[in-house]
Design goal:
Blueprint: E1 4-11, E2 15-25, E3 31-42, E4 46-47, E5 50-51, H1 54-72, E6 78-83, E7 88-98, H2 108-122, E8 127-139, E9 142-145, E10 155-166, H3 167-178, E11 183-189, H4 190-198, H5 201-206, E12 208-213, E13 218-224, E14 227-234, H6 238-249, H7 253-263, E15 277-279, E16 290-292, H8 293-317, E17 328-331, H9 340-348, E18 352-354, H10 364-367, H11 373-391, H12 416-423
Parallel strand pairs: 1-6, 6-11, 12-17, 17-18
Antiparallel strand pairs: 1-2, 2-3, 4-5, 7-10, 8-9, 8-10, 12-13, 13-14, 15-16
Helix pairs in contact: 1-3, 4-11, 6-7, 6-8, 8-9
């Protein structure tokens, strides 16, 4: 097997991050993945997860590609790209078909038809389907089947979760990437990729919630029995904390961001009421004003509590409030704020921890940085697909990246005709 690179590109509101992983065969003849490089640049032309200026976004993505190519020493041609934002939504769907073979044996083609039937169930007018994630199958009313291939029956049903995005949002996003000269191998909902990176199969089997705190939005993915139960986007992120500090302290956003990074904590209870003080003028304030660390913590805590209260509301919708044995895994750049874990434990009433990627790498500092979890997850997403393909396995894995489901994704290999349509819009 020839060594090759897998690229994950996370186009976020505050930063664009790229990770490269090299696929090779180990001494035991097993396929292995090693993270070999990464790059990060400040975002431009992206506001609240949405492209606000195509030209600026193209420039920022190009800068990330150039930086990564210098680090890796190879040109980059194709990548899996993470997409997020409040214009991504999910919907439950059910597909029902009759088994095609006269002897009633269910084959892979039947599963593909059932998944296609689930897609028509939602029939989005101005939405593009990103993923169809089968949860379970039913054969002649027998529910809870993971893999019905080889079974016999007349009626096949699939219970699926469909992740979709507003058409204009998806088109503008893909256009910005294509104009850099980079091909999109797959377009993946970013929190799904992050969840792949920071959770283990055992956690996804028992039940776990991944909360990915980005700059403008917070993504939520809930797993149970190895399947995705719910996907949701909260339109609040780390930038809202910065805005609250700017308003509360009457300072610029730049000064507020600096104070948040140096003195910020989400857990106000850990800061004494008679805490240390600092002068706003030392951080770019227009006038000299003494402010206590407790005041800063109180402002931050209020917004972080709101994020987790909305996460509780999402868990309540699926009757999993306080009922996930593997607890909550926090990831994303916003999760690095001190005290976030303590507030999450208090509000969610579940075990909470900062997620870490379990990937082999010569750059451990990159793998352990939660801000890179989406980009790392995009590399892992491709590797899982490639490994199953090379090993000739049919898999209905925990992430929903199934042999039949892949063809239903917006940008799978089967989606190349759609890819060409988008490229035709590029001048």
């Amino acid at each position: 097997m020839k060594e090759r690179l897998l690229i994950g590109l996370d186009v976020g509101t505050s930063a664009i991050r790229l990770v490269a992983g090299r696929v090779s065969v180990g001494n035991d003849r097993r396929i292995i993945l090693n993270v070999v490089g990464g790059a990060e640049v400040l975002s431009q032309g992206i506001s609240k997860g949405v492209i606000s200026s195509v030209e600026d976004a193209v420039s920022a993505i190009s800068a990330a590609l150039e930086q990564a190519e210098r680090v890796i020493g190879e040109p980059l041609a194709e990548a899996a790209v993470g997409i997020g934002g409040s214009y991504i939504s999910s919907q439950d769907a059910r597909g029902v078909i009759g088994v095609s073979r006269t002897d009633g044996e269910i084959r892979a083609e039947d599963i593909a038809r059932a998944i296609e039937a689930a897609k028509t169930f939602v029939n989005p007018a101005n939405q593009e389907i990103l993923h169809v994630l089968p949860r379970s199958f039913s054969v002649d009313g027998q529910a809870g089947i993971k893999d019905p291939v080889g079974m016999q029956g007349i009626r096949l049903e699939v219970d699926a979760l469909i992740v979709q995005g507003l058409s204009s949002h998806v088109r503008n996003f893909t256009r910005a990437v294509f104009r850099t000269g980079l091909d999109i191998s797959e377009l993946v909902y970013a929190p799904l990729a992050a969840g792949d990176a920071v959770t283990l199969p055992r956690q996804r089997e028992l039940g776990v919630c991944v909360i990915c705190i980005g700059a403008a939005t917070t993504g939520i993915v809930v797993y149970e029995n190895g399947e995705i139960m719910r996907v949701a986007t909260i339109p609040i992120g780390a930038d809202h904390i910065t805005s609250d500090l700017a308003i509360g302290l009457r300072i610029s956003l730049e000064s507020a961001e600096k104070i948040k990074r140096i003195h910020g904590t989400a857990d106000a209870q850990s800061v004494p009421k008679r805490s240390a003080v600092f002068d706003l003028a030392d951080y770019g304030g227009d006038v000299s004003e003494i402010v206590s660390l407790r005041l800063v913590a109180d402002i931050i805590e209020a917004r972080v509590e709101e994020i987790f209260e909305k996460a509780v509301a999402e868990l309540r919708k699926i009757d999993r409030e306080g009922m996930l044995p593997s607890g909550v895994v926090l990831t994303g750049g916003g999760a690095k704020l001190p005290g976030t874990v303590e507030v999450a434990k208090r509000i969610l009433r579940l075990p909470c921890a900062i997620g870490q990627c379990h990937m082999q790498s010569s750059l451990p500092e990159l793998v352990l940085d939660s801000a890179y979890s989406t980009a790392l997850g995009l590399v892992q997403w491709q590797f899982d697909e490639e490994r199953r393909s090379m090993e000739g396995q049919r898999s209905y894995g925990s992430s929903g990246k199934r042999a039949m489901g892949k063809g239903t994704e917006f940008f799978g290999k089967i989606g190349s005709p759609i890819k060409k349509i988008f490229k035709s819009f590029i001048p």
